[in-house]
Amino acid sequence: MTEITVRPLAQADHADWRRLWTAYLTFYETKLPDEVYDITWKRLFTDGEFEPKGFIATLDGKAVGLTHYLYHRSGWSEKNNCYLQDLFADPDVRGKGIGAALIEAVKQEAGKIGVKNVYWMTHETNTTARKLYDRVARRTGFIEYDLL
To answer: Which first-to-last residue range defines the signal peptide (predicted)?
Structure first.
């Protein structure tokens, strides 16, 4: 029997976090300089209402997934919103509930402080992830625009 565990990132997770985040970035055909890895890791452990946070998922003790999320203000609500920024499960374990467990962990954590809106984006070609997202969330119909 396999057991999925989701817990907050710990300093001891650095090597697993870096491996998983690199695989996530590779999936999106992106590379980041070491300085961005370093500042992101530092921010994940910096106190502050709007600093990013993270969870790691393990399957039978092996790190197999991660998520980063952050809270931000909204003009539409007294409570903050929660943006689930990054979500990744090792390809070898997809379909075993890792992504769903990570999403649920973020939802539960956000709920502890009264946040009701947890949202994220994915690329339209990410059909594997979209099957999960269509099952666990509602699609809003909004289209993202970017000024980069």
So the answer is: none
β-bridge partners, 67: 55, 87
Integer CA distances (angstroms), 101 to 15, 27, 80, 106, 116, in order: 21, 20, 22, 9, 18
| CB burial readout 72-94, b (16+ within 10 A) else e | eeeeeeeebbbbbebbbbbeebb
User: Is pTM beyond 0.90 here?
Assistant: yes
Instruction: Identify how many contiguous H helices and E strands the chain contains and give both numbers.
Output: 4, 5
Please, which residues have CB within 8 angstroms of residue 9's CB and are 6 or more apart in sequence? 17, 44, 45, 53, 54, 55, 56, 66
- For residue 130, the tally of other CB atoms under 10 A from its CB is 14
Q: How far apart are CA 64 and CA 60, in angstroms?
A: 10
Q: What is the pLDDT of residues 68-85, one digit of tens each?
A: 999 999 999 999 999 999
Around 86, how many Cα atoms within 13 Å sit in the side-chain half-sphere?
Answer: 23
Give CA 80 to chain center in angstroms: 17
Spatial separation of the C-alpha atoms in residues 129 and 137, rounded to whole Å: 12
